[in-house]
Design a protein that fits this description.
100 residues, alpha/beta, 3-stranded parallel β-sheet, Transcription Regulator spoIIAA, single chain
Length: 100
């Protein structure tokens, strides 16, 4: 992801990810946030919704390359306790064993 994930872009991102997934189940998902410059609670909602979708099918989600300010938002929302965060995409891939 890149740019801003906020109330202006959340619906677009949600629809795009869901479109990419189609009707198929996603076993694991890695979100590389290296290009994300801003995120608000709407963005958290998008990510949490995709997390629920993946984990309901028995999969895992990992997030990588998070800006410290955005990581703080995840921390304040309590998402660091449920979603795994990794410094690099390679570490995330090793941890979940695959990605979409």
């Amino acid at each position: 992801m890149s740019g801003e994930l906020d109330h202006h872009t959340a619906e677009l991102v949600r629809n795009r990810v869901d479109q990419e997934l189609g009707g198929r189940e996603c076993q694991h998902m890695i979100l590389n946030l290296s290009g994300l410059t801003f995120m608000d609670s709407s963005g958290l909602g998008v990510i949490l919704g995709r997390y629920k979708r993946v984990t309901q099918g028995g999969g895992r989600m990992a997030i990588t390359n998070v800006d410290p300010q955005i990581r703080r938002l995840f921390e304040m929302a309590g998402l660091l306790k449920i979603i795994q965060f990794y410094d690099t995409e390679d570490l995330a891939l090793q941890a979940v064993g695959g990605a979409i």
